[in-house]
Amino acid sequence: MSGDIVFFDLPGKDSAATAKFWESLFGWKFKEGNFPGYSMIHGPTPMGGSAHGDTSKFPRVYFGVDDLNGAIERVRELGGTAGEPVTIPAGRFANCVDDQGVEFSIFQAAAE
């Protein structure tokens, strides 16, 4: 289990305003994502994304894992919570909360 940050999501109630702010700040480019209502953020490392209409107040980080099911089990063993896995073209992820209430996600890339 590597734990490297492999992706992030930026919330934004207004997708145009979100893109304008971050493009102006860092020069990032927001482009339509692989499903409606989602933008991919090109420029940062790692790459990020932004869900249109997301009213969260904090970015969400995705930590890379080799075995998503094993990582979900480990989160739960440690007193955290883990949602059911979600499959996307790039792989699978689960949204989690640690035992102190901090939200994060774990991500396993699709096999090449």
From TrEMBL:
Pfam families: Glyoxalase_6. Residues 4-109 form the VOC domain. It comes from the Bacteria. InterPro entries: Anthracycline_SecMetBiosynth, Glyas_Bleomycin-R_OHBP_Dase, Glyoxalase_6, VOC_core. Gene3D superfamilies: 2,3-Dihydroxybiphenyl 1,2-Dioxygenase, domain 1. PANTHER family: GB|AAF24581.1, GLYOXALASE-RELATED. This is VOC family protein.
